[in-house]
Each structure stands twice: as C-alpha cells, then as structure tokens.
Specification:
By secondary structure, this protein is an alpha/beta fold. It has 11 helices and 10 strands.
Length: 281
C-alpha cells in the first residue's frame, strides 16, 4: 500500500498541477507527503548554497498549505547536489512508497521524465513512480480527481516476470474497494503462428486465470485479456478501449529481450497514456 510518497517540485507553474494531482492520493492510501526541492549546488560556494536552501524551504512552506488542508502530514526537504542522486537517497532514507510527479514539465521536474534521469529512475529507482502527463493534469478542473478515480478501471500489463508480479502485488495491496475493475493484459509476439502460437495462447490464459483468481480472492473484480502485436501499442489500445483511469506496470522482463520491451512500454506509457501510470520496479 502507498502510505508515504515523495513529491519533487521545481517551483514552475507546472508544479502547482502536481500538487493539485497529489491531493487525490489519499484514495490510494497515502497519508504522508515528503515535499522536496533539489538545489543544484555544483560550483556554488557555501553561503550561496545556504541562501538557496533557505529560499527553497520558504517556498515549499507556502506550497505545502494546500496539502495540509487536504489532511496530509507534510514534511519539507531541501537536499543539494545531483537531482537523481538526491531524490533516490531521500526516497531510501524516508522509505517512501512511491515518487509522485508530472511529466513533460520544465526545469528539474522535466529531468525526471526526459533524458537520462527518467531512464535511470525507471531502471534503477527502488520505489514505484506515480506519474501523469501535464497536459492531462491541465485538462482537468480538479486534477486530484485523476487519483481519486485511479482505481475505477485499471489495466495491468503482465509478461509473468517478477517485476510484473510485483506490480500485481501493488494492485492487491491497494485499499479495499479502491480498484473497482482490473484488466490483466498479456501481449503475444506477433511473429508466432500455428502450433507455437496456440501453445503460447494456452500458456498465457493459464497464467492469467491464476492471477485473476488471486485478485478475485482480494475482492477485486477482474478480467483477463490477450492481445497480439507490439506491446506498447497494444497496451495503449487497451487503455483507450477500456477508458482506463489507471495503469500499473512493471519495468523488467524475465530475460534481456523482455527487459527491453518492458522498459519501452513504461517509457511509452509515461509519454502517451491517457491516465495516471504507476510504474513498479
């Protein structure tokens, strides 16, 4: 269950959308929020760094008000140094359950979802990432509703790897009743045919039915789906067809090829999914 999340902000206009988004996190079990701004201190002298830290803390205090009013316990942190290193170190220190942020913003937040830092977070971060595109957040009168409705229709792609199993466990640990419908999706290789395709379909259906039984035992209405084609495209198609309100996915496959595919799916979902994405390492 997600009880404590880390929310990075860069004081851009977009970070207000992130904070509005975060207000809905209680629907997923969140009670505490660590609000953080990283001061890039490379090449700066001590007094300058201290001044920037004090300024950032004062601005965080102002931003924290809406979260406190929404009933969250809020902790303010202003680490210095490399953004990725500071965020992952703080996430480990505070044993947070996820990092929550928006995608396609400017400044520090944009580094989380574009280029090397996003790839390092998806590949190396030890905690889940809960993200939504900024254009989606801006399109809502109340972005908090996106998290409040996250569990209405959830799609969970699986390749039956350990990472996909952890994604399912994350779904099963959500507050009781928060997931109203769960679709377990497996995508078959389009290059398969004949007897090989039949065996793969039968194997996938067997595994999906076992996972479906696990979810049903937790009181989560569940359905299984098998599609064929490019994994990222098929997941996006499933999201659109189901009008999904949330997607939960792993990042690592059972072997080197699947690891590349799962990573590709994760990055594609961050950039194109029509709903918030929870990525589980």
């Amino acid at each position: 269950m997600l009880t404590t999340v880390l929310v990075p902000v860069d004081f851009s206009d977009e970070c207000l959308d992130v904070l509005a988004f975060a207000r809905g996190a209680s629907a997923l079990g969140v009670r505490s929020i660590v609000l953080v701004h990283v001061v890039e201190s490379s090449g700066m002298e001590g007094p300058v760094i201290a001044g920037k830290v004090d300024e950032a803390r004062a601005r965080l205090q102002e931003l924290a008000g809406t979260l406190v009013e929404s009933g969250y316990d809020v902790e303010l942190r202003v680490p210095t140094g490399d953004t990725f290193d500071a965020l992952t170190a703080l996430a480990a220190e505070r044993t947070v359950d996820a990092i929550l942020c928006g995608s396609h913003a400017k400044g520090i937040v944009s580094q989380l979802v574009e280029g090397s830092i996003s790839e390092r977070l998806i590949r190396d971060a030890s905690v889940p990432l809960l993200m939504a595109r900024f254009d989606l957040l801006r399109s809502k009168d109340d972005p908090a509703q996106m998290l409040k409705r996250f569990g209405d229709v959830v799609v969970l792609p699986t390749d039956f790897s350990l990472s996909a199993s952890r994604a399912l466990m994350q779904a099963l640990q959500m507050p009781k009743g928060s997931i109203k419908m769960l679709y377990l999706l497996h995508v078959l290789d389009p290059g398969l045919s004949g007897e090989q395709l039949r065996r793969q379909e039968e194997g996938a259906e067997f595994h999906l039915k076992a996972l479906e039984a696990m979810a049903e035992q937790q009181g989560i209405p569940t359905s299984v789906v098998i599609r064929t084609g490019d994994p990222a495209r098929q997941v996006l198609a499933e999201l659109d067809e189901r009008r999904a309100t949330g997607v939960i996915t792993g990042t690592r496959g059972r072997n080197a090829v699947q690891e590349v595919l799962m990573g590709s799916v994760s990055m594609t979902l961050l950039r194109q999914a029509s709903c918030p994405v929870l990525i589980v390492p």
